[in-house]
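WP5 quarterly update. Target: Large ribosomal subunit protein uL10m. Source organism: Xiphophorus couchianus. Length: 252 aa.
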Amino acid sequence: MSATLCVKLQRNQGWLPLIQSVRHGSKAVTRHKKPVHILKQKLIAVTQYIPPARTVPPGAYPSEEKHVQEDNEFVLLLKKNLEEVFEECKMIAVVQTNACSVDDMLMLRHRLCKHGIKIRFFPNQVMRSFLSNSVYSNMAPLFIGPTVLFVSKEPKVKEMMSALRFSPQMTLLGACIDNTLLSAQGVVSYAKLPSLTVVQGELVSGLTMLTSRTAFMLQHHPAHLSALLQQYIKQQSPDDGAEETPKAEEAS
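Structure tokens (predicted):
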């Protein structure tokens, strides 16, 4: 009963316990490493294990020397044919064949032959090797995957584009027309241009009209000036005025 009464009095009056554990000072840090003695450091450095150099067996890695592989006779013949194509043809188009069957290729060849356009097949490796040593080196990135060349001695771009409309599996990558490298969009824009005959006719008609207009202007001014001078002379001449007076009296 007395213990219960003491607990109630402690709660009511806010008594504190007689013993309290209070911690003073900073916390002990034990994570720092003890410095190694200088003699021990020297001993560790002297006795450290140094592994021997790794010996590479011969042939494990490719040699740094570049071996130039000489082309065989067949590759040289293909390069010679390519050189003739680039010298004789003004239009060389690069087309990628995407799952094109033999029948589709024959039909496309027939359509292109009507306009004098030929299809030539060359391996991509031979094309890149030839283009790397020529002025057409910028065409090398076009030869990716199965590709063919559409060549013609004259730039017949409209005919080529009309034939490609019937072969959706053939993708035009780019072309070299009149020694100018064009993208696929550039070839489409080139096909929309008028033909050379139409441009020449428009140029000749324009020059003829300008020439005739110049000749008319050169002839018109002197004739007009001479007519004005003759009229002025007639008005200033006294004899003409005297002759006109008697004639007017006779008429009256």
